[in-house]
Amino acid sequence: MTTNLLKTYQLQSDKLLLPKRQLIITYALSALIAVALLYLLVDPAPAAPASTRPSVAAPWIQEELPPPSSPAPYQGDDESLRSAPPQAQVLAAAAAPCDYTDGEWVPDPRPPLYNGTTCDIIKDGRSCTANGQTDTGYVHWRWQPRRCDLPAFSPAAFLRWLRNRHMAFVGDSLARNQAESLMCLLSSRSPPELVDRDADSRFRRWVFREYNATVSIFWSPLLVRGVEKSERDGVRYNQLFLDAFDERWMSQLFGGGGVDAAVLSAGHWFKIPSIYHRGGGVVGCHGCAPELNYTETSFLGVFRDAVRRTLTEAARRGRDAGAGEEREKLVAFTTFSPSHFEGDWDKGAPCPKKRPYKSGEKELGYTEAEMRKIVVEEVAAAAASGSSAVRFAALDVTTLADLRPDGHPGPYSRKNPFAGGGRVQNDCLHWCMPGPVDTFNQILLQTILRR
Ligand SMILES: *[C@@H]1O[C@H](CO)[C@@H](O)[C@H](O)[C@H]1NC(C)=O
Ligand SMILES: *[C@@H]1O[C@H](CO)[C@@H](O)[C@H](O)[C@H]1NC(C)=O
Ligand SMILES: *[C@@H]1O[C@H](CO)[C@@H](O)[C@H](O)[C@H]1NC(C)=O
Description:
It comes from Paspalum notatum var. saurae. It is built from 13 helices and 13 strands.
């Protein structure tokens, strides 16, 4: 169970095949880790203030929602593109930007673009069907915005845009979840080739040769320079250096051979006990032992600071690199993706729901709402800062993700979870693939096309 915890929540880096001795040591640390990792998924924020969102059941669900548009074929992009040329979509989107945050999940009988058989990039922990999940109902929903349509994902359109470009995903395991979803969606059109990776898969890069299109994943759950908490390595707190950047990915942004588009996604790691450094000294702490004598600091404020500094620096580097370049750079930031543990996540709390929530049926939690707002506001501020070389966009998925308690692996983050008879650790944080995370990339594509 401990190794499973480590797998799912701490390392997130595919570095799982530990030698036996390490496994034993790891096991010995289990209690510590369980307590420490609590913070990753338990919400330490104050009780939610009265929500500003109307709590009345939304009558428009039945009355005003347009009837589901006749499903465009998922497979065969060319067919769907003939009926709705991408230029038309672009123009329509430019004319009336669609609010994708307001909507509802509706049944969708179409098969997904990929599955565990057709895409081998799916991380084992996300391949729910292969792990024994027999109820695949969670696959058959699509997001229907209230006032407009969200076009089906078109691998051809995405790859056409990505031709001669490089897109990088940067962040935590949810960034990776989204990147792998995109890789699988694109794989249904063109085979990718893994061209580079580091030893523990914290960095990976693929190329779609047919398009000279590149996708990379960078592990950087704190965005700024930091050391992640790891009991195994004796690091009891995240160490965040708020005035330094994580150059492992920052140095790859823009400029010669750099990326053209970055998709950032982070948040969950900021909730873990952390020590904050600035100017060479400790300036605060979150969730620290009292005897350390550090000032308790709001992780929400630190998250905002990290997001702002990251976006400001991206704008600056984009400006510097952009001189003489005709192509605009894109920085997109995926908003917070909520988990759905019903109880204490470290005590085996499950996420047993089998259907999406209806819109209005569930209030967004306080921390989730704040984490989302920080990204939306900081992205807007970066966009308003007047850098023409870089376009900033928020992929505002928090609400639509919050409505999907049914899309997580639950026990099926590993094969035959009930075979051992022991307590099962549920993963109610990441997303099964295929699953709701594919919608993040549907919105990413529309964000790219909307100019
Ligand atoms: C996966 O997709 C392929 C091609 O669409 C299909 O033939 C196969 O039955 C699917 N497998 C599963 C397990 O759904
Ligand atoms: C291939 O794509 C890269 C970006 O990933 C670009 O720098 C390079 O110029 C492209 N090659 C050609 C031949 O266009
Ligand atoms: C914390 O403060 C107490 C009382 O001032 C002091 O005795 C102790 O040494 C301090 N601990 C650290 C780690 O500085």
